[in-house]
Here is the input.
Amino acid sequence: MPSLIDLLLSRLATLLPSELKASELKQLLLPHRHSMLLTQRRATMIVNRVRLFAFLFAVLTPVWGIIDLVVFSYPLWLGLASFRLLACAAFACLLLLYRPSGNLFDAYRAIAILFAIPTVFYIASHTLLGGYQLTQLSAVVATGYAFLPFVLMAGLAIFPLTLVENLVLASILLLAQGLAGYLSWSTLNWPSFAGAFWLLILIAGVTALASLSQLAFMIALVRQAIRDPLTGVFSRGSGQEIMQLQWDTSWRHESGLAVAFVDLDHFKSINDAFGHDAGDQALRDCARHILDNLRSTDSLVRWGGEEFVVIMPDTDKEQARLALGRMVQKGFGMRPDGLPLTASIGLAERFADHIESPQQLLELADKRMYLAKTSGRNRLCAEAGDELDTFTVRQERSSGRGNRVGRSRSKFSV
Here is the structure.
């Protein structure tokens, strides 16, 4: 019997872009399922739209004060004008001082500040207006203040948010509406308040669907932009972004960062002897074998042709060497002629190799990969001028037991 979440996802699938894969539907529920690049792009978009929203409110909030001046008496107008100036200053600070960093928690903070400013203004103005006896015209204008929660709730539609994020923000706005009703309990028109509250819930549902639709399109577009269409791993452009992000994280936390260049041996002979379709299948099989031996925090990038880059955060050189050794022992797949597919690998690590930039880290790993290739292929070069780890692969054809992998060490002088 399907779970409630599965049932919800199946219903959402009929309302969202067909480009979204079934495995990606759960990304619409919680943000922790998102990839690093999707998180970065989404955080940047949220902050940019927060700043756009803040600009709009910073301009329109004081303009409405002109209407207050005409309609309300002096003490009330002055109080409302003071609230408006404070809100305008807060919006201006948010617009001028907040910049996108690609960090999701920074984006959460920005959107929280954005919605906190008008929410506080709404509660304060609502309380102030409740203390005055308003005439017919001033009562009509004061009614306009009651629409602020609806504007904020509708504003959620411009953000690409998950379902949980939508529920949290919508709940805060509904609580603010309930608090405003509680503060004016003695004069509250209950039928009107209940109708407004129900309308606010309805708008919350519509904006949640709009936000999820935005997020779904974003997931599909980011996937198409950052993935290599043949192998499904990260493309070179997105790999460079991941490298910079992991470098920044490593620098902030003083943690290890290892990078390995993997170049398949004699790959051109596959295309020449068996055709490009066979070569493409070998690349897909190789990518799958490498992914099967990586952690969830590692990233595999198709750098170009038959070259792959493995980015391993929080990993020192010895840990990376052991991980690559296990990867080679399990193999990179098979060639069309039944022989094992082998690779020449270059390894570099930020601390052990005293690297000063992500470009240097990639260049050193690339250089060591060429050293591995020129020294006989099917090996790992992890030390400049020291030694190469040689992986010897032998297939047991007669016994039919498949591949058996042995490991030896050989010296290599640079």
Notes: The beta strands are 257-264, 299-304, 307-313, 343-349, 379-381, 387-396, 402-411. The two ends are 64 Å apart (CA to CA).
